[in-house]
Specification:
Elements lengths: L8 H27 L15 H28 L4 H24 L2 H24 L3
Length: 135
């Protein structure tokens, strides 16, 4: 690892953890889809009582936010943002995504929304800390 990246090693590790989480969700989605005998390419019925629907939405939601996470992490690193803030915010995001995923699978709507909000706040914190490096 290059020396200039060392202060952000935790953020880089969080990026790997987020990618691993997305991969795990994909595997879970595939297993649940196979178990439910879902026909590939067929629409997924919107039913929060159905684990396959919840797994589909959990994966899709992570997929929707992971690009912002990756871009903000790279932006923060390349901007020489505060390592402690960037590293901490990165792990808050990853932790919130894990919580969101678990709450979605278990059908816990209010905690799921709280985890989503925490993850969103972590992304905004990453943006702010990156922008602060430019002032």
């Amino acid at each position: 690892m290059h020396t200039w990246v060392l202060p952000y090693a935790s953020t880089v590790l969080a990026m790997g953890a987020a990618a691993g989480l997305l991969l795990l969700q994909l595997v879970i989605l595939d297993v649940v889809g196979i178990t439910a005998r879902h026909t590939p390419g067929a629409p997924v019925v919107a039913d929060h009582g159905n684990l396959f629907f919840r797994a589909t939405r959990a994966h899709a939601n992570t997929n929707e936010s992971i690009a912002a996470f990756a871009l903000l992490a790279v932006f923060g690193i390349l901007s020489a943002a505060s390592p402690s803030w960037l590293n901490g915010s990165s792990w808050v995001y990853v932790s919130a995504r894990v919580g969101h995923m678990l709450c979605y699978y278990l059908g816990l709507q209010l905690p799921r929304s709280a985890c989503f909000a925490v993850g969103l706040l972590a992304l905004f914190a990453m943006l702010v800390v990156g922008l602060q490096a430019w002032t």
